[in-house]
Design brief:
The longest helix is centred in the C-terminal third of the chain and has 17 residues, at about 225-240. Helix content is about 35%, strand content about 20%. It is globular, with a radius of gyration of 17 Å. Strands 3-2-1-4-5-6 form a six-stranded mixed sheet. It has a three-stranded antiparallel sheet with strand order 7-8-9. It has helices spanning about 15-25, 55-65, 80-90, 115-125, 135-145, 150-160, 205-220, 225-240; strands at about 1-10, 30-40, 45-50, 70-75, 100, 130-135, 170, 180-185, 190-195. By secondary structure, the protein is of the alpha/beta class.
Length: about 280
């Protein structure tokens, strides 16, 4: 069993954050270890409260996991504070683990989760450690100060972010006005455009967490980066198709490929590819 460490905030509604990370890692064949960086009071409708975990407690969690478990890859999402960013950077420095960094700045509803100081600290301390950054188009625009409206601008923004020292950037196209069904993977050797199709579903909470955690799990299993991204996108497509409703919009379902058409979990899960 491949251990993947998810570092993120807790979503009390269970739709996104570390709860979505655990589901995605487990569904992709990994064991999810966790470091909680923040606690939210969050319904399916809105964010009611955001409480960062002190940096020293984040570091204790990191030391407990990394000092005990054979971690094969790391994924991080919301970090909550500059102190948490520093704790993660110090813990991961020199380990050489595959690291997928999702630079989450806000909730789906637009509530801010990372201020300018946190973003600056991530840029300086964590981006150089990352195997892959996974910003959506607005995040890529905010990080680079460049417009990101189509695939060409996504390539330019991704190329700009490579200068931070990360190995690769996946600019997610769900928010691209001109190319809403395109994701762009930018590496030092060139770029790859992944075409998609329209998915009509209001149940899309946890998409970024699910994608990043699935990619991290496949990297933990030894898959090359581009193949891990492809596999992650396929899994996310199934998860969006299988999303289920809640009052404010439901989550994607990372276990959708394993459920029967009735929605009931089979007594003996079928042998299916991890997609």
């Amino acid at each position: 069993m491949h251990v993947v460490l998810a570092i993120a905030g807790s979503d009390s509604s269970g739709c996104a954050g570390i709860q979505a990370d655990i589901r995605a890692i487990t569904a992709s064949g990994g064991h999810a270890a966790t470091v909680v960086t923040s606690i939210t009071a969050q319904s399916s409708l809105r964010l009611l409260g955001f409480y960062p975990i002190p940096g020293r407690e984040v570091r204790r969690q990191l030391d407990a996991v990394l000092g005990d478990l054979p971690v094969k890859a790391v994924k991080s999402g919301v970090l909550g504070s500059v102190e948490a960013v520093e704790a993660v950077a110090e813990a991961l420095q020199g380990l050489g683990l595959p690291y997928v960094l999702d630079p989450v700045m806000a909730t789906t509803a637009g509530a801010e989760l990372a201020g300018a100081a946190v973003i600056s600290a991530m840029h300086r301390r964590l981006f150089p450690l990352a195997t892959l950054l996974t910003p959506n188009a607005p995040e890529a625009a905010a990080l680079t100060g460049m417009p990101v409206r189509d695939r060409d601008e996504a390539v330019r923004a991704g190329t700009e972010l490579l200068a931070t020292g990360c190995r690769a950037v996946l600019v997610k196209g769900g928010h691209l006005p001109a190319d809403p069904f395109v994701d762009v993977l930018v590496e030092r050797s060139g770029h790859t455009v992944f075409e998609g199709t329209a998915l009509s579903s209001p149940n899309t909470r946890g998409t970024g967490c699910t994608l990043a955690s699935t990619i991290a799990t496949h990297l933990a299993r030894g898959m090359p980066l581009r193949a891990a991204v492809e596999r992650g996108r396929l899994h996310l497509t199934s998860a969006i198709h299988g999303g289920y409703p809640l009052p404010g919009g439901g989550p994607v379902d990372a276990f959708a490929p394993y459920r029967q058409a009735s929605g009931v979990w089979p007594l003996c899960p079928p042998e299916v590819a991890h997609v």
